[in-house]
Structure formats: structure tokens, C-alpha cells
Amino acid sequence: MITTEQIKELRDATGVSVMQCKKALEEAGGDKEKALIILRKKGGDIAAKKADRALGSGAVAAYIHGNGLVGAMVELSSETDFVSKNEEFRKLAYDIAMHVAASNPIYRAISDVPADATARAKEVFVKETAGKNAAIAEKIIEGKLASYFGEKTLLEQPFIKNPDLTVRQLIESAIQKFGEKIEVARFARFGADER
Alpha-carbon distance 121 to 117, whole Å? Predict the structure, then answer.
């Protein structure tokens, strides 16, 4: 039997609707950790369904680190101004700006990595796998490329406030919560140490 306290606890942790929390807990047999995984998976599914929607609104957030040497700006887009004016949406944009300042991503998504950068990295990894079976070497190279560019790609990086989530999963959970497509349109990081 799922208690209202369990549902409330999961809702407080995720911000997802009471009914979705209840269904996830029922599916997980009352296990909160399993319910979180179920909600993340559903968040990804919901995000995929909304992927072709147009983005017409959004918010810009800035974060300046306490020492004043590093800062970042993020433009987070949504479908409507109803969502973009929501305080939680603006907090999400701020948290992503904080993440950008801390993690210094180069690319927004893996699809933004230029072909020449991929080719240069692949050359290095091909040399490292010389002498291995071709099929195994190809899998190793794919894994090394995913890992290498994942560290440099905003959406694939572990979120600084919760390393169990990637920034992509954080956004997918916001899509599930707000019921609209949400996307990082662009970002910039500024640092006095980068001159």
C-alpha cells in the first residue's frame, strides 16, 4: 500500500504531479529509488514526444561566481511565456548557468561537435586501438569518443548539484513537470583566467 507520505516525499523530490508520483511508486512496489528511475525514463519519453514543438518564449539567466572571476549566461527556451515566467523555470535556467560556469562545456549537444573535431579525436583513438580486432576496436573508439565529447558537452555532463543526473535528464524532468518542450538555446562562459 502506497502512503500519501511516500507520494508527498517523491513529489517534493521531483516536482512531478501527484498522480505520476503515485503511479511510479505503485509500479516500483513502493521503492522510492526505483520510482525515481521510472519517472526519469518517463521524462525522457515525454521529452521525445515534444521534440518537434516550436519554442516561442524563454528566459536568460546569468551566474557570477563569488570571486567575480567566472560567470555564465544561459538562454533557456520554452513553448510559452506561461512557463518561461514561472519561478521554477527561471531557477532551472540559473542552475544551468551555474553549471556552465563550473563545468566549462564547449558544445551544447553531441550533434554540435564539428566533424573535424570528431575526426581528429578519432585519429588519436585509432592509434590507441592498433592491433585489436576491427569490430572490438570500433566499439572501443565509439566509447572513447562518447566519453571524450561527453565531458565537453553541456547536455551530457553530470549536473553539478546532482551528479546522478545529466543536464539532459534535468531538462527532461522539467519537460515532464511543465508539460512543454524546454531546451538550452545557447550559453556562454566568461572567465578572467581565459584571456
Answer: 6
Assign a CATH topology to domain 57-108+152-194. Answer: Tetrahydropterin Synthase; Chain A (3.30.479)
CA distances from 59 to 81, 105, 177, 182 (A): 9, 20, 17, 11
Task: Using DSSP, state whether 65 is helix, strand or coil.
Answer: coil
Q: How confident is the model at residue 46 (pLDDT cuts 50, 70, 90)?
A: low
Scan for cell 548557468, then name that residue: 97
Q: Does the pLDDT of residue 31 top 90, yes or no?
A: no
Q: What is the pLDDT of residue 109?
A: 94
pTM value > 0.90: no
Which CATH topology does 4-49 take? Helicase, Ruva Protein; domain 3 (1.10.8)
**CA distance to 9, 140, 168, per residue, from 99 (Å):** 26, 29, 12
